Amino acid sequence: MTGKADDAVAPRWRPAALLPRDRAQDLLLVFVTGVLCFFACLSVIAALAADRAAGGWTAQLKGSATVVIRPVGGESPDDAAARAAAALAGLKGVAEARTLEKEKAEALVEPWLGPAAQLTDLPLPRLVTVQFDPRAARQPSAADLARALRAAGVDGVVDDHSRWETDIVHAGDTARAAALAAAALIGLAAIAVIAFATQAGLAARREIVEVLHLAGAEDRFIVALFQNRLAELAGLAGILGGGAAALVAAAARLMGGANGLTPVLPIAWTDLLAALLCPLIAAGVAAVATRITAARLVGEMP
C-alpha cells in the first residue's frame, strides 16, 4: 500500500532531451527571425500589389484614347469637339466618346500654371475622351480614329497613350523587382541568422556532441537534432511574422476603402495568402541552413 501511494505522489522520471532548450536564446532567435519574416512577407505583398497596379494602369491606357480638337474656320471649339465625339462614337470597337468639359480641362492645366492663372482667358483646346469596348474583337488604332476624324472634317490629334505604356510597364517592373529583391535580401539575412544560431548552439553544447560521438551516435543523427530544433523555431517565427504582416496588410486594405490605404499599390485579399507560405518557407530554409552548417561543424570535431 505504501509503495503504491509513493508512486502516485512522486513524479515519474522522464529522460531529458538530448538537446536542452535555452529559453533566452530560443526567444531571441524567434524574435529576430519573426521580424525578418514580417518584412519579407510585406515585401512579397508589395510585389503582388505593384504587379496588379501596373497591370491595371496598362489596361486603362490600352482601353482609352484622347483626342485634341483644333477648330477649323469659324467653328467654335465646343461644336468641333461635339462633332468629333459623334464621329468617333459610331466607330466600331468604341464604347463611348464624349467631350471633356471645359472645367475639367482647366483642372488638368491648373497644377502646371497655378490657381492664380486666368485660365478663362487662355485658348484651351477641347479634348475628347474615347473608351474602347473591351469585348470587341479588335480595338481601333490611332490611325482608325484619325481617319474617322478626317471623314467628319474635324482637325484633331489622336493620343492612344502608347508612349506612356512603356513607362508604366517599366515602372511596374521596377517596383516589382525592388520588392522581390528586398524579400530575397531579407531571406539571406534570415539564413545568416540561423547559421549563426546553429554555430552558437553547437559551441555551447560541444560537450553533449562529444558524448554522443563517444556513445556511437552518427553525425547525421546529431545534425538532425539541431536541424529539427531550429526548423521548429523558424516555423514558429514564420507564423508570428507572417501573421503580423497579414494583419498589417489587412489593416491597410480596410482603412482606405475600395482601393485600400495605398491606391498606388492596391492590396487584394488574395495577397494575404502569401503569408500562409511563410512558416513553411522559414522552416525549410532553417532546415537546409542548419543541416549545412551543423554538418560542417560536426565534421570538424574530433
Number of helices: 9
How many domains in all?
2
What value does the average pLDDT take?
Answer: 76
Structural class: alpha+beta
Kindly estimate the percentage of residues that lie in beta strands according to DSSP: 5-15%
Order of helices and strands: HHEHEHEHEHHHH
| Shape verdict | rod-shaped
Uncertain regions spanning at least 5 consecutive residues: none
Proportion of residues in helical segments: 55-70%
Question: How large, in whole angstroms, is the Cα Rg?
Answer: 33 Å
Structure summary, number of beta strands = 4
CA-to-CA gap between the ends?
52 Å
Report on the biggest sheet.
4 strands, antiparallel
For the biggest β-sheet, the strand order reads 2-3-1-4
Which key features would you list for this structure?
single chain, 302 residues, alpha+beta, four-stranded antiparallel beta sheet, 65% helix, rod-shaped
Describe the structure.
The chain has 9 helices and 4 strands; from the N terminus they run ααβαβαβαβαααα. By secondary structure, it is of the alpha+beta class. The protein has 2 domains: 21-58 and 166-300, no CATH class; 64-138. The protein has a 4-stranded antiparallel sheet. The longest helix is centred in the middle third of the chain and has 43 residues, at 162-204. It is rod-shaped, with a radius of gyration of 33 Å.
SSE blueprint:
Layout: H1 2-9, H2 23-62, E1 64-70, H3 77-89, E2 94-99, H4 102-113, E3 126-132, H5 142-151, E4 155-159, H6 162-204, H7 206-214, H8 219-255, H9 278-300
Antiparallel strand pairs: 1-3, 1-4, 2-3
Helix pairs in contact: 2-6, 2-8, 6-9, 8-9
